[in-house]
Specification:
532 residues, alpha/beta, nine-stranded mixed sheet, 16 helices, 40% helix
Length: 532
């Protein structure tokens, strides 16, 4: 995935942001579906918001980068009630000041990815040379995320230690079949919701993408840019789309890479996500030799498929040992290791292949457990309940909490458990455990606060041309979503990367980099049918 986003997305990422079908009636559309009134399109003129829009961030050195903070209202309906989020900012100055156009704001995905951590951890390398020359690259932690004050916290009351792969938090089957197993899955989901409400109940209604997009406009203004230049990866494409609907007249350039289709509902996203991950694992079996050579766990694609299927069956019955730990590699941890290794084949398939080989030949799950642990983004609670961290320690990684909080708030979910079980059975028939795990990830949304957004086709008349980038072998955000989003945007342009893995800009080839940078810098259009 690049930019550190792999560590941000748990095994449940297949439940990405959702939308409803193309036949949704106009009255059911979200706030961006109708022409925005002047007060919404020009919030800076509203007295209650003027102070937020007129902030002057104080930038200080943080290593080779610069850091600051931005204050935004917690509730845009009551911006003067004193409740706010303070969001960390980070920037890398344009490398050629004489050519500087302005700021390029980015969101690395999630939801739950820290833009601050992304730049601090080398994410600047994902931007092309031309983009870096012409723009200050600006990242931020969205409301409730990581260094945001306050930050969402869904840590269970009795969660005093991290649960490793195969630990107490990974005991439910990937496909619960019996009534007892399904009741246990519901209980787990309900416990997670209760923990979120206990720690962050007052924040949960205010961390949705609709509000995050309004924060993005405040950020644009305080950076001194009349119009926004923005690059969003994965979930960041949805944030960019929601911004475009609310502030279309403030858009200069949007790049949406690894697109999420806002016209799919939660069930459609779960089904398509399961199919995409299943296809990605099949692609791994088919193309392993061309990527990692002799390190593949079997000599043929069919052999690799059988080895993986056998390991799923074995770990479901008898979890594998992990050296130096009392934990075991169960089917949940195996599934995390396999699916999270589909994001960046060029850097992940080697370790996955070696881990699968060791597990199959000697019953040793240590290597796969390490992949699952790294991908699972285990949270460090030592940094404090507010998530802000200290001067010497990074903020708590709450990406798993935010993933649920934003996804659930942004899309209505049914409360009847039977709806989920019916979809679970359908998803399992369609794409096996990949589909089943996608549906299970939605269970927590059953009792979640409901936000004002509703899935819908994009309505943004007058929006300048937007560049959508789609990767044909993307499991986390299927290529079909990119095609659909590009078709919904006025003047939408689709750039296709014919390759594997999640997203393209920053991890694919010079063809993609040149096209994206050409659009960002000179607004150079991408021709219909363009591919790399």
């Amino acid at each position: 995935m690049g930019r550190g986003t792999v560590a941000l997305v748990l095994a449940s990422l297949t439940a990405a942001l959702v939308g409803c079908g193309p036949n949704t009636p106009d009255h059911a559309l979200g706030p961006g579906a109708q022409a925005s009134p002047p007060a919404a399109t020009e919030p800076a003129v509203q007295p209650a918001l003027r102070a937020f829009y007129q902030q002057h961030p104080v930038w200080t050195a943080c290593g080779e980068l610069q850091c600051a903070t931005l204050t935004v209202p917690m509730d845009y309906a009551q911006p003067q009630d004193g409740r706010t989020f303070t969001l960390p900012l980070i920037r890398a100055a344009a490398t050629d000041p004489a050519k500087r156009i302005g700021s390029l704001v980015f969101d690395p995905g999630g939801p739950g990815a820290s833009g601050v951590a992304t730049l601090k951890e080398g994410g600047l390398d994902s931007f092309g040379k031309e983009a870096r020359a012409h723009f200050d690259i600006v990242g931020f932690d969205p409301r409730g995320v990581a260094g945001s004050k306050p930050a969402v916290d869904c840590t269970a009351q009795d969660d005093t230690t991290d649960q490793g792969p195969g630990g107490a938090e990974a005991t439910q089957p990937l496909y619960p079949r019996t009534d007892a197993e399904r009741q246990a899955a519901l209980a787990d989901a309900d416990r997670s919701v209760a923990a979120c409400r206990a720690h962050s109940g007052d924040l949960l209604p205010h961390v949705g993408t609709l509000d995050a997009a309004r924060d993005l406009d405040v950020l644009r203004a305080v950076l001194g840019d009349e119009k926004l230049s923005y690059l969003g990866w994965s979930y960041g494409t949805y944030l960019g789309t929601v911004y475009a609907e609310q502030f279309r007249h403030r858009v200069r350039a949007l790049v949406l890479d690894g697109a999420i289709d806002p016209a799919r509902d939660w069930s459609e996203q779960a089904l398509s996500g399961g199919r995409a991950f299943r296809k990605a694992v099949d692609d791994y079996a088919q193309k392993c030799a061309s990527v990692v050579g002799k390190s593949c766990p079997a000599a043929t694609p069919d052999g690799i498929r059988k080895l993986i299927a056998d390991l799923y069956a074995k770990t479901a019955r008898h979890p594998l040992r992990i050296k130096g730990s009392t934990d075991r590699l169960d089917e949940n941890a195996l599934h995390t290791a396999v699916t999270m290794s589909m994001y960046a084949p060029e850097s992940q398939w080697q370790a996955l292949s070696e881990g699968l080989s060791t597990a199959a030949s000697s019953g040793d799950g240590t290597a796969l457990a390490a992949i699952a642990k790294q991908s699972g983004s285990l949270q460090d609670d030592s940094s404090g309940a507010d998530g802000a961290g200290t001067a010497d320690a990074p903020p708590r990684d709450n990406s798993g909490d935010i993933l649920t909080a934003v996804n659930c708030l942004d899309s209505p979910h049914p409360t009847d458990p039977q709806v989920y079980w019916q979809l679970l059975d359908r998803a399992y028939q369609d794409s096996g455990v990949f589909g089943a795990s996608s549906v299970l990830a939605e269970l927590g949304c059953r009792n979640w606060p409901t936000g004002p957004q509703h899935p819908h086709r994009v309505k943004a008349d007058g929006l300048p041309p937007v560049l959508v980038v789609g990767t044909t072998g993307d499991a986390a955000t299927p290529y079909e979503d990119a095609k659909s989003l590009a078709s919904q945007l006025p003047g939408g342009m689709l750039l296709t990367f014919n390759g594997l893995g999640h997203t393209a800009y920053g991890r694919s080839n010079s063809c993609v980099t040149d096209a994206v940078d050409g659009y960002l810098v000179a607004l150079k259009p991408v021709q219909p049918g363009a591919g790399c």
